[in-house]
Amino acid sequence: MSDAIKHECGIAMIRLRKPLQYYYDKYNTPTYGMSKLYLLMEKQHNRGQDGVGVANIKLDLPAGSRYISRYRSIAEKPIQDIFEKIGKKYNKANKTNPEEYMNAQWMKENTAFTGEMWLGHLRYGTHGKNSIENCHPFLRQNNWKSRNLVVAGNFNMTNVDELFERLVSLGQSPKDKIDTVTVMEKIGHFLDMEVQRLFDEHKEDYDNIAINKVIEENINLQEVLANSCKDFDGGYAMAGMAGYGGAFVARDPAGIRPAYYYADDEVVVVASEKPAIKTAFDIEYSQIKEIPAAHALIIDKQGDYKVVPFTNSLPKKPCSFERIYFSRASDPNIYQERKDLGKLLIPQVLKAIDNDLENTVFSFIPNTAEVSFLGMTEEVENYLVNERLAAIQRYSNDVEAMKKVLSFRPRIEKLVIKDAKARTFIADDAHRDQMVAHVYDTTYEVVQKEKDTLVIIDDSIVRGTTLEKSILTLVNKLSPKKVVIVSSAPQIRFPDCYGIDMSRMKEFIAFRATLELLEETKQSHILQEVYQKIKENEADLTQENYVKAIYEPFTDEQISDRIAKIVTPAHMEAEVEVIFQTVENLHKACPEHTGDWYFTGNYPTKGGNRVVNKAFKLFIEGSEDRSY
Q1: 3-state DSSP of 590-622
Q2: Residues 517, 554: contact at Cβ < 8 Å?
Q3: Is residue 215 a contact partner of residue 146, using CB atoms and an 8 Å limit?
Q4: In the structure, what pLDDT confidence band is assigned to residue 611 with cuts at 50, 70 and 90?
């Protein structure tokens, strides 16, 4: 994606199901769990590079032994940073006590990060903060093992204020008003209540030491989650480990955020993406299962697991951006879906180039648009099959003409090259624009000047800044006749509030284009009408997305044409056209991932309506505050 946005975090969990010595003996190393978690996280590094965290829990250690370890990092290469630190602990144990290095019990008693339960998290800082304190996993500590809680997740809540107030009403005083702390404290509160319930139920039958075992064996995590999450409004894949050995991964009622698992006799594994599990454990994709919406994977102290419902489900609306951009295309289904997104754009592309393939060069904006590009060019080849059949009939007596037709291939070039990652540490706008302009480079002398049309595909167009300041400025140097920018995603018109950092209306180029069209057609009064409706219903903004009304006067094509004008640099000599995927074709390509609220405004939870209405209100009032 040329307009970088911060987004989706990633989770990784491993629960070793057999005695720890089993893995030492079978794999001839004490690092089995650590190595597998490293692979799970490294194969999901696309999901978060601002910060990383790892937690480990050791089971059945005696009182006085440290049994929870945690590292978090915001280093330049945080995954590497953390696992190098953990690796040093193993190396130290091997160096100082080589005779005990393959003794699982000794290692567990004397070396950190040698337990049976692992939880990893990769983070993008969606709220602009990137301190170590913002990195997951978060830890809620208690002297009772059963009340210790480690939480990490891929989520955003739309009703943090409401959840915070409910914690306060319970008598708590949370240390921060952010969704991670609020969520952890809510789950922690009901975990405390469950422990207390079991204590009260059995205190007459056992002494204070023996009762711990009874509590740990009977904790109902399904009930804990049911009580904790019933007020949550958002998209989430929430992972947690309790100090006594229980664990869970809970998925939101609409299935917005992804979560997959694999289990065998040795492990239970969870990750945000299938390819990570496949690579780490060398299994077939068919062995990897999806945690259903409104369900939780729950692991008990013995390592047994079950997938159970914990809340009422909503119509399933998994995030379509996962398929368009976020998740890795090494997943075979995602790979095919992205190709289909490219294929479905060809009718619009052919219209834009007047079917003149001879004078058209196809290219893509690296790196993630490459698969859609393959689909697009594959469909051009399919189109040419029919053209060749017609030509054979037309030129049946002209060998040279037929030879020319049969040998014709689409012109494919790598015109845009991502040269370096721009650092926007330069504060003033003029110099920042120069930095943006040099993120990309181009290939010269492959375009027929003032004759060729360039068709360049991108994953999506959010702000349009990179198009104007970099891409179009670059390709203008090639002197094409026309440039067609193609987005494999539809127009982004509305904020996201479930994990992607898209919260302010003015950032969306489709919104800015619509504002210009409203002014040009003397319909700006619609803005005030929408604002007034929002003000009138401010007590409850969850019932309707009032902002949809500003787009209704215009067709998708009218908005696309205005976007083309906005992103065209002042010095651009070639004509510029912008083509977006249709929502209908998006659903054809990704039929199982119908979450499209950023394109349509159809939010899967009521909290989404509140967020979009608040975002519009803040825009009208000139506020830079976030809408969630």
Answers
A1: CCCCCECHHHHCCCCCHHHHHHHHHHHHHHHCC
A2: yes
A3: yes
A4: very high
- Nearest by Cα to 290 from 314, 274, 313, 266: 274
Give the strand pairing for 295-299 and 305-309: antiparallel
Binned at pLDDT 50, 70 and 90, residue 429 comes out as very low
DSSP class per residue in 277-344:
HHHHHT--GGG-EEPPTTEEEEE-TTS-EEEEE-S-------BTHIIIIIS-TTSHHHHHHHHHHHHT
Position 177 confidence tier, pLDDT thresholds 50, 70, 90: low
Question: How would you label 402-431 residue by residue, b for 16+ Cβ within 10 Å and e otherwise?
Answer: beebeeeebbbeebbeeeeebeeeeeeeee
Helix (H) or strand (E) holding 212: helix 210-218
Residue 281 has pLDDT above 80, yes or no: yes
Cα–Cα nearest to 136, from 47, 66, 216: 47
Q: Which pLDDT score, from 0 to 100, does residue 124 have?
A: 75
Token pair belonging to 284: 């077939």
Give the per-residue pLDDT at 4.
59
User: Considering only CA atoms, which of 217, 215, 389 is closest in space to residue 304?
Assistant: 217
| Spatial separation of the C-alpha atoms in residues 505 and 563, rounded to whole Å | 15
Nearest to 202 by CA among 277, 281, 146: 146
Sign of CA dihedral 72, 76, 79, 85: negative
DSSP code, position 468: I
Distance CA 336, CA 497 (A): 27
Query: Measured at the alpha carbon of residue 159, what is the angle toward residues 157 and 161, in degrees to the nearest 5?
Result: 120
The tens digit of pLDDT for each residue in 202-216 reads: 999 999 889 999 999
How many alpha carbons fall within 13 Å on the CB side of residue 290?
10
The pLDDT tens digits for 95-127 are 999 999 999 999 999 999 999 999 999 987 655
